[in-house]
Amino acid sequence: MRCVSIPRPGGPEVLEVREVPDPVPGPGQVRVRVRAAGLNFAEVMARMGLYPDAPKLPAVMGYEISGVVDALGEGVGGPEPGSRVLALTRFGGHAEAVVVSSSQAVVMPDAMTFEEAAALPLNYATAYHMLFEVGHLERGQSILVHMAAGGVGIALVQLARTVPEVTIFGTSSASKHEVLRSEGCHHPIDYRSKDYAAEVRRLTNGRGVHLVLDPLGGADWRKGYALLRPAGLLVAYGFANIASGERRSWFRLAGQALRVPRFSPLALMNENRGLAGVNLGHLWGEVELLMSEIRSVVELYRAGAVRPRVDSTYPFARAADAHRRIQERKNVGKVLLVP
Amino acid sequence: MRSVWITRYGGPEVLDVRETGEASPGPGEVRVRVKAAGLNFSDVMARLGLYTDGPKPPMVVGYEASGVVDALGEGVSEVKLGDRVLALAPSGCQAEAVVLPSHRTFAMPDDMTFEEGAALPVNYLTAYHVLFRLGHLRRGQSLLVHMAAGGVGMAVLQLARTVPDVTVFGTASAAKHDLIRQAGCEHPIDYRVLDYVAEVERLTGGRGVDLVIDPLGGPDWRRGYSLLRPAGLLVLCGFSNLATGERRNAFRALWQLARMPRFSPLRLMNDNRGVAGVYLGALWDEVDLMAGQLLAVLELFRQGKVRPRVDTVFPFARAADAHRRIQERKNVGKVVLVPG
């Protein structure tokens, strides 16, 4: 089978398509013939050598796929061969075939396309986990979503809309505001032309928001924290600010790292505020929790409440362009790779 | 009317009962004739001068009271003269009468005593907020609560019991273990004899807990953080380690502060953990949030699921003894002041 390999750290040009033997499902596993695979910021970071949890290079990345089950390992009752499934996988998803534990494959609703299915697991599990497991979004609350037009951003907007009377602020460049509005974001903010913190304060009459979801990191974490209402929570789930160029820059890295705030418990107490971190890559020990969150999202899809948005689809041979699209933050929704 | 005054920062002896004129309710306000007032650890901290942003002595503290409405301001219709109510105020409840906006009073259930009423608001609001607003305790989860036999601790135990299959670890001295076990603490831990971190790790097979509720502060916050499972939350709800002696002790305070952890989002991300603070005194403006939670607790009282435990009742004249009882951590449940 063919797969997209990262042979060494570097720019998008290092990616290469390689031929390797098909994997064989072991006990409790199924093999899925991949129809589409999701690409995430984490894989871009891994390619730059900035992702500490990536496997040693050379490696095949990819955490999520959709496809058709074509072989069962010993002791597996289902899903049956021929089933259309979406699955979480720890690496290896950017390939023509993937072997996963049968408990990590969920049968797709009939109406769901393979592209939608590959766009769902990571973004929606992350979003669901942050809004409903770590956070506690309730009727009438307000949230600020950064990179709102990105994969997790759109998932957050759609999932937040399933709670009545939630007000959503989202940052993105102006060209994406129409899309954001159509997804249900009440107040798109162009972070390039406006200070988003001042804008959120203005729009909330200085009251701020209940929940800030921040994958930017560095100094933005402090800005977001300052926007929290009493009993509010800042959820940090990424550090995109360190990867804004195509290559690793130690200078930028150091600058951003120095601007990571450290919060005093006394301030958290006096201000009635909270902080939480989410890194799905470190939740493989809780894969049952993640799968139950994904199943909840699939139910919401069936009910018509969420629909993964696909930005673009690239064949394996053009994986470098797919990386560039994410890294330059041009995508609105998910970037997919297809065999 | 008589009130309990903190005349200056210091030991319990700075407390004094003084007579002052009685206030009349303004528009939208009511006056409550106080039958009982709750005493909290934060009042001890205020007496010691450990709240830098609080009012300055001489002052009357007290967040909560129960009593009977005896005067109505203009435009008040939802409360009547003679109503038995709970009262919540930013300060001033440790007095024979308190004047406050009518929406800060709540009708008491018929079978609730005034002592129970005074014991309920702060502890149960804190516990409810921590368990169900900051955390969201669900079936099958586990939690560690410190000072489990204290006012907030007992409220946490009772409220946690309303959720099925929750495993509760609680620290308290051995003499209080029977009581907290009855209240729903499955694993009482005597923190004076055992290292509670090692004990929780042992009992959970190294997995830790979903929620740690820590009013101790300083190095305990670090230890509690280390016990969290993925997606777990450490709730910071006090710093009683600062106030273990009768008087303010700058050396101990500095030592505690120096060993206090600071939290970086990067670290939290790496660990999939959260940290949140709660200070009820700064939540007074979140009236809807507070009211909703208090009404939820009162409903649980009506259903017989929670019942505030009163430790002791002291007349105003013995307020110093009441402070000592809390500060020495002798109480099991609430210490209540009555005009006497």
In words, what does this structure look like?
The complex is a heterodimer of chains A (339) and B (340). Chain A is α/β, with parallel strands linked by helices. Chain A has eleven helices and 15 strands. In chain A, helix 3 packs across helix 4 (151-160) and helix 3 (121-134) crosses helix 10 (287-302). Chain B has 340 residues and is an alpha/beta fold. Chain B has eleven helices and 15 strands. Chain B has helices at 41-48, 114-119, 121-134, 151-160, 177-182, 196-203, 219-226, 250-258, 265-271, 287-302, 319-327, and strands at residues 2-6, 15-19, 29-39, 64-72, 84-88, 97-101, 105-107, 142-145, 167-171, 187-189, 209-214, 228-236, 273-277, 310-315, 334-338. In chain B, strand 9 (167-171), helix 5 (177-182) and strand 10 (187-189) form a beta-alpha-beta unit. In chain B, helix 3 crosses helix 4 (151-160) and helix 3 (121-134) crosses helix 10 (287-302). The chains are: A alpha/beta (339), B alpha/beta (340).
Task: For this entry, give a set of tags.
heterodimer; A: alpha/beta; Quinone Oxidoreductase, Chain A, domain 1; 6-stranded parallel sheet; globular; B: alpha/beta; 2 domains
Overview in brief:
Chain A has 339 residues and is α/β, with parallel strands linked by helices.
Q: Biggest interface, which chains?
A: A-B, 39 and 39 residues
Shape category of chain B:
globular
What structural class do helix, strand and pairing data of chain B support?
alpha/beta
For the record, the CATH class of the largest domain in chain B is Alpha Beta
Overall domain count of chain A: 2
Oligomer: heterodimer
CATH architecture of the largest domain in chain B: 3-Layer(aba) Sandwich
CATH class of the largest domain in chain A: Alpha Beta
Q: Please identify, by name, the CATH architecture of the largest domain in chain A.
A: 3-Layer(aba) Sandwich
The largest sheet of chain A, given as strand count, sense and whether it forms a barrel, is:
7 strands, mixed
